[in-house]
Write a structure and sequence with these properties.
single chain, Aspartate Aminotransferase, domain 1, globular
Length: 377
């Protein structure tokens, strides 16, 4: 439970954005006092900023078990990392590839690249998923057999929390000489990643999902690969991106990576929460038969209106959402749940609960008791 002014709030929308870590709030004023130099300048203040930039890069690389920090470039967030990691990577890979394959449940920042990919003379194909939210391996194998491909599949889904079998996917994709981008925005900081022991070619992460500041992300690009800039002349970050680095954002991402949360206790509590939800309200948990992030439950309340439930929860000091923050204000039903075969009439009855690691047992109790009042009405 957190305080918003004088009001106590149960925050259950961490997959949209996480609270800034206390260490960042504590240290940011001191950081801002010394970090105003441009990292590209050779004078003392510029070189101090450069040191902060590169020290942070080393910390972030270490959090992903990457031995070469230069393989990390900084971006404005998860969306830019995804666009660079798919469109920028696809441009650089031509003519080695002829198509880009993405799963049906990818983030809109990737699904929205179809026209841009096609303008590059490449095919853009969707990979089906199963009712449990996992990539359909047979469909992927069939599509990989047709053309040399760049494949983009997320590590863990932002709406359901379903974790893909990344090692198996990695092996399958590279066995055929294809290339692999992974959107790890939701999994980063919640699932251990050892990229030096994998063949993933590109991987996207975001700062504000793990308690860093908004407006900072990173893209891992495996040594030996190239990226084409998507705008500007690519004068920074290995000539792949334009614009002075967001030094304070980078610094905050480094601090957040040095202070990952432990989600093991939360996962147990969240699983008990799922059991209580099913027992009390007869809900459906999307992807419950798959391995999921320990903080996420995508809950379908048959016969209930999600907008009314969300409004009622908010009035009782509970912040939750209907799914992706990028579509929270849109009337369109979840493309993720549609792809999983969830019946149309259930798509307007969905609440996603995604928790921070410091959620309390009393917070779960408050949500359950509030739902009991709202649903009985």
């Amino acid at each position: 439970m957190i305080l918003a002014g004088e009001k106590k709030i149960v925050y259950a929308d961490a997959n949209a954005s996480s609270p800034i870590k206390p260490i960042i709030l504590k240290e940011i004023e001191n950081h801002l006092k010394i970090s105003y130099g441009n990292p590209s300048n050779l004078h003392a203040l510029g070189q101090l900023s450069k040191k902060i930039l590169e020290d942070s890069r080393k910390i972030i690389a270490g959090s992903l078990s990457i031995s070469k920090p230069k393989d990390i470039i900084f971006t404005s967030g998860g969306t830019e990392s995804n666009v660079l990691g798919v469109l920028g990577f696809a441009k650089a890979l031509k003519p080695k590839i002829r198509q880009v394959l993405v799963s049906e449940i990818e983030h809109s920042s990737i699904l929205g690249l179809k026209d841009h990919i096609c303008q590059e003379g490449l095919k853009f194909e969707l990979i089906r998923v199963t009712k449990d939210g996992l990539v359909d391996m047979n469909d992927l194998k069939e599509k990989l057999s047709k053309e040399p491909s760049l494949v983009s599949i997320m590590f863990a889904n932002n709406e359901t929390g379903v974790i893909q079998p990344i090692k198996e996917l990695d092996e399958l994709i590279h066995a055929g000489g294809h290339f692999f981008h992974c959107d790890a925005v939701q999994a980063f900081g919640k699932v251990k990643m050892e990229l030096d022991h994998s063949n993933i070619d590109c991987l996207s992460v975001s700062g504000h999902k793990i308690g860093a500041l908004k407006g900072i992300g990173a893209l891992y690009v495996r040594d030996g690969f190239d990226i084409k800039p998507i705008f500007g002349d690519g004068s920074h970050e290995r000539s792949w991106r334009s614009g002075t680095e967001n030094l304070t954002g980078v610094w905050s991402l480094g601090l957040a990576c040095d202070d990952f949360n432990d989600y093991s206790d939360l996962e147990k509590a969240k699983n008990n929460f799922d059991v209580e939800l099913k027992k009390e309200f007869g809900v459906i948990i999307a992807g419950e038969n798959s391995k999921r992030l320990g903080n996420t439950s995508c809950v379908i309340f048959p016969g209930s209106n999600q907008d009314l439930l969300l409004a009622g929860l908010d009035l009782h000091g509970i912040s939750a959402s209907a799914g992706s923050a990028c579509k929270a204000n849109a009337s369109m039903p979840s493309h993720v749940l549609k792809a999983m075969g969830i019946e149309k009439e259930l798509l307007k009855s969905v609440i996603r609960f995604s928790f921070t690691s410091d959620v309390l047992p009393a917070d779960f109790d408050h949500i359950l008791s509030t739902l009991a009042k709202l649903i009985k009405k």
